[in-house]
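Hi R.,

Here's the chain you asked about this morning:
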Amino acid sequence: MAQREAGARGAEPTRRAHHAGVHRTRHTRLSQRNHMTVHWHEVLDAHDSLAMQASLPDKSSIVCRVGLLLLAGGAGAWRVREAMNATAKVLDITCSSDVSLTSIECSCFDETGSFSEVVSLPTTGVNTERIWNMERLVRRIESEGAGFTVGRFHELMDEIEHAKGRYAPWQAALGAAAACAAFVFLLGGGPIEMACAFAGAGVGGYVRRIMLDRHLTHLACVGCGVAAACMVYLAVQRLIGFAVPAALDYNAGYIGAMLFVIPGFPLISSGLDIAKLDLRSGTERLVYALSIIVTATLVAWLISSFVGLRPDEFQPLGLSPLALAALRIAMSFVGVFGFSVLFNSPASMAATAGGVGAIANTLRLTLVDTGVTPEAAAFVGALAAGLLASVVVRRLGFPRISITVPSIVIMVPGLYLYRAVYFMGTVDVVGSMEWIFRAVMIILFLPLGLGLARALTDPAWRHCN
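And the predicted structure, written out as tokens:
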């Protein structure tokens, strides 16, 4: 979906269709949506001409759509611009672009003049398989693109844009359930809290996915998903309480049921964008992530206030160091794998991210156990994840972001964020500020660790230009 702005020097004021003498429909369907849909094949000058010989507006449409599809998958500004530049070089034009969370402003130049346009998305999300497919398409463009027609470029992108999600709603819900149950264990929870969180996150994840598939507004999907998750957690806890009365005392895992909505992907990528001085994209991603966090934690706090729940500490599990380390490795893998399913990662990609996350997160937790501050441990864990991912990416060809970000999403301090909102709701300013500062410090160190790993292993990313 896009919004086009005709531009400027040397570009034809009207665009004429050339289709080998055959009439082709031109811009006959007008969208009724708020974000009007651009029917790309209807706004081309020369659908069947070689793209190398096409008009500047047609070349610009190819470049911008490449960037837009990557942006729709959740890629950061630097990666989007890199793909657009690679495509522009094949088409023998110069591209200057400004990327935000949901839009791209692009100007293309050649010997005839310039052409500018703006393309935008109606919403945002994460789809790591789309990012992977687009990276493979860009590599194909670099090797074969000189022989593609304008129409062929758009046909290849049509296939990627219209590809269905890899997982059905129930599968995504199962991934959310497994991830949140694992998350609860890593926070210190036991079997009862894990079972309640599994049920709550499964139902909440299913509700959220169904609403997203119906294109309902994003924050409403988050709020309803969290509300369903929290209420199911409480219901399952009461049911278990009939058989095990002590289960009613296990309230600490309540927050774990809604951690599937924590926007780790935009939260981490915002830091990476800011590190590359893509301030517009970084700031917008950060604001988007904060809006989801605030919505989710407020809904969770509202429900807990009705039933009188407090964010208590987890009870000791009494595990030996060896058993604890083994379970941390296993639960870290399960958690990262589950979050990767939510990001639409293929099983092989999700398993790879899970392996990296299992090592990095276990290292982080072990450092905390030895007395290292949680903030420093988060930095080391993110750095380790980034370095491990750089080795894996070279061997397997996965997009780096599809491995690094899921592997450290499980390090995002969702529990701290909830406690901050809880104490804010009880007007405990000191307690609220304490948990806010703790959460913010960890969140800041996660992209810092990933950024350092990227700078050490990627010469192109290391330089400002």
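The radius of gyration is 24 Å.

Let me know if you need anything else.
M.
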